[in-house]
Design the sequence.
């Protein structure tokens, strides 16, 4: 926008400033006999946007609070550019944070809110004025200096909170479900905007959310957390295409799961379900014939009505769920199990009716071998 | 857009169904009925006596006059009592503030259940009669009282301290009675302060002390102001404690009024004194309302 172009010097300065490398090593928090965070280890590159994704109680917020300094770790290290900050009080850490409900100071104007960290750092009045103006342009709220937080909409408060967290140019930025209170449309808009601002300031960012779509949209990498542990770390695409566990395959997107024993056959592997259904699965070093395994199969990878593919089954459509851009079909197979199929809502997919007998097919590579359950067996 | 634009404005052409109107009026009447008993009670027992008080205070021997008010302003002893009353009320408020703020702060940091439990402890004095409490203090503070004996036996003092029939006694007794009125509103407001604000301040580089001074303290002020207002106004009208525990220099306005009625039988003058007290109280309320809003007194929201 015009606002950003008006301050090329500021933009350049922001870009030159490098985010810090942030390493979490064996970070653990135990409350009584509950392990809230269990040896969380992450190596975050300078300028990287990493999301901690998981259901409530998975330890993502605890981990974030340990980095911010509000929760003291039971064990582990937090290294910022190699220096352990785990024992520093919050006010000495120089880490920006956007809180869930923004935590804007209600008795201060927007400008005073944003100036707060600069005052604490004893910047001069002129420097502060300049920095506040620049950062308000960065978050596209120029001219809002004298408003009070209660006079702003949710989205505007969000921008002020972001501005306040970035104005002192912290090498690390933490965000705790910052978009939870906004409606869907605004949330999607803010996702992209936060991402752009994060990129332009090159700030190493840890973002906490339970919204998988948000995580996929914004992140360079995602760490999926469950029961205090990191289940899997990877790019959005890796996580979606190659989930290592049922939990990840289920939490990010939707999956059909098939379990059974591995049997070899003409140079390929098959998974044989207890009902005796044979499904071809990819050959992998980690799987031996005779192993008990599960595979995840994405609903949109299954083709309906077309007979070609490594695996073909027949079934009856029991339920049709129209969700706009796609249509989901719950199909009961002959031997009693179910598959969910998701197809783009095109005319030819919309002609199917409940009770229709259909053929489903998919390729061997579409089935991904995953760990059982929620990871305890690993 | 075109579809909605063609629709007539809601209510422009649609008449209210008369049956609906009747129903609505009946519901309003029912709601008003709920208010009625309290309203009547206030009119008979509160509004009427106060009006009588006002009327009485402006009569002198059957003619309308401001003689009594003139006396209050001109006679030295009455002005002195006024001054004493305000000084004691201010002192009590200040002590309640110093004792009550940390207590309210402490309570507000506890988990809701623990806080409720401890609040009951704060409230227990509320449920005991002022008279009983005042006599209890007299037992503790008199020359041969518990406190003096204890201090003597510990060897901390050589002769009993005078803690009764002077300012100390009055302040101790009044603070004890009035402290909950400071703690409750302060606690209610503090409880409503989002602790993430304090975290945010620390995250942004404020030491815990700076976070308290710049964020928590300003946000707790409405509660402090409300508590101070309640304590101050209640202290102005105190009677039993200064009467029983005060000395000759601790005579407060309520005692003066009692004396005028019981021994001097000067009802109009007592009425004038009461009117002045009422007027001062109202002025303080108005100022408070201008500055902070009365809704804050009993723990409205802080935003």
Sequence:
């Amino acid at each position: 926008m015009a606002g950003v172009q008006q301050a090329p010097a500021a933009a350049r300065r922001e870009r030159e400033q490098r985010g810090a490398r942030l390493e979490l090593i064996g970070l653990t928090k135990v409350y009584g006999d509950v392990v809230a965070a269990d040896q969380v280890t992450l190596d975050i590159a300078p300028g990287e946007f990493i999301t901690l994704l998981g259901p409530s109680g998975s330890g993502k917020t605890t981990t974030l609070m340990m980095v911010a300094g509000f929760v003291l770790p039971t064990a582990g290290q937090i290294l910022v550019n190699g220096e352990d900050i785990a024992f520093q009080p919050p006010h000495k850490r120089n880490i920006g944070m956007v809180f869930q409900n923004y935590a804007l100071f209600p008795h201060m104007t927007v400008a005073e809110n944003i100036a707060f960290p600069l005052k604490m750092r004893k910047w001069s009045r002129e420097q502060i004025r300049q920095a506040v103006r620049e950062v308000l342009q960065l978050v596209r709220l120029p001219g809002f200096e004298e408003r009070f937080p209660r006079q702003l909409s949710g989205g505007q408060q969000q921008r002020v909170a972001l501005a306040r967290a970035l104005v002192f140019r912290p090498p690390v930025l933490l965000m705790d479900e910052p978009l939870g209170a906004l409606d869907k449309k605004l949330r999607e808009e803010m996702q992209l905007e936060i991402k752009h601002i994060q990129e332009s300031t090159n700030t190493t960012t840890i973002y906490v959310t339970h919204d998988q779509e948000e995580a996929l949209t914004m992140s360079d990498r995602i760490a999926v957390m469950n029961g205090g542990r990191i289940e899997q770390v990877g790019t959005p695409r890796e996580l979606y295409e190659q989930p290592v566990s049922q939990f990840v395959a289920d939490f990010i997107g939707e999956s059909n799961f098939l379990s059974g024993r591995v049997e070899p056959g003409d140079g390929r592997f098959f998974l044989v379900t207890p009902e005796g259904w044979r499904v071809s699965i990819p050959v992998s070093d980690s799987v031996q014939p005779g192993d008990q395994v599960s595979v995840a199969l994405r609903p949109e990878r299954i083709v309906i009505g077309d007979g070609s593919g490594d695996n073909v089954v027949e079934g009856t459509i029991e339920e049709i769920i129209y969700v706009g851009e796609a249509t989901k079909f719950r199909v009961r197979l002959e031997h009693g199990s179910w598959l969910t199929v998701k197809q783009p809502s095109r005319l030819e997919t919309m002609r199917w009716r409940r009770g229709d007998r259909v053929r489903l097919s998919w390729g061997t590579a579409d089935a991904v071998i995953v760990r059982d359950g929620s990871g305890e067996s690993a | 857009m075109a579809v909605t634009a063609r629709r007539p404005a809601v209510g422009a052409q649609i008449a209210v169904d008369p049956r609906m109107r009747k129903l609505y009026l009946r519901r309003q009447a029912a709601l008003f009925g709920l208010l009625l008993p309290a309203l009547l009670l206030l009119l008979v027992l509160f509004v009427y006596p106060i009006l009588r008080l006002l009327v009485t205070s402006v009569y002198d021997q059957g003619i309308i006059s401001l003689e009594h008010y003139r006396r209050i302003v001109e006679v030295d002893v009455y002005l002195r009592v006024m001054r004493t009353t305000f000084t004691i009320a201010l002192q009590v408020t200040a002590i309640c503030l110093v004792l009550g703020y940390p207590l309210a702060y402490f309570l507000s940091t506890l988990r809701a259940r623990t806080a409720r439990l401890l609040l009951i402890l704060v409230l227990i004095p509320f449920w005991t009669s002022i008279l009983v409490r005042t006599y209890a203090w007299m037992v503790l503070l008199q020359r041969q009282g518990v406190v003096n004996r204890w201090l003597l036996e510990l060897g901390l003092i050589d002769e009993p301290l005078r803690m009764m029939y002077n300012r100390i006694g009055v302040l101790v007794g009044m603070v004890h009675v009035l402290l909950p009125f400071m703690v409750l509103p302060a606690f209610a407001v503090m409880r409503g302060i989002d602790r993430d604000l304090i975290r945010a301040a620390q995250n942004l580089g404020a030491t815990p002390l700076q976070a308290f001074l710049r964020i928590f303290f300003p946000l707790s002020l409405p509660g402090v102001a409300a508590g101070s207002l309640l304590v101050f106004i209640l202290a102005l009208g105190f009677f039993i404690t200064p009467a029983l525990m005060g000395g000759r220099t601790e005579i407060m306005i309520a005692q003066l009024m009692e004396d005028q009625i019981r021994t001097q039988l000067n009802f109009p003058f007592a009425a004038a004194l009461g009117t002045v007290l009422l007027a001062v109280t109202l002025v303080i309320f108005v100022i408070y309302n201008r500055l902070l809003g009365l809704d804050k007194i009993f723990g409205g929201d802080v935003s």
Notes: The longest strand of chain B covers residues 59-60. DSSP finds 13 helices and two strands in chain B.
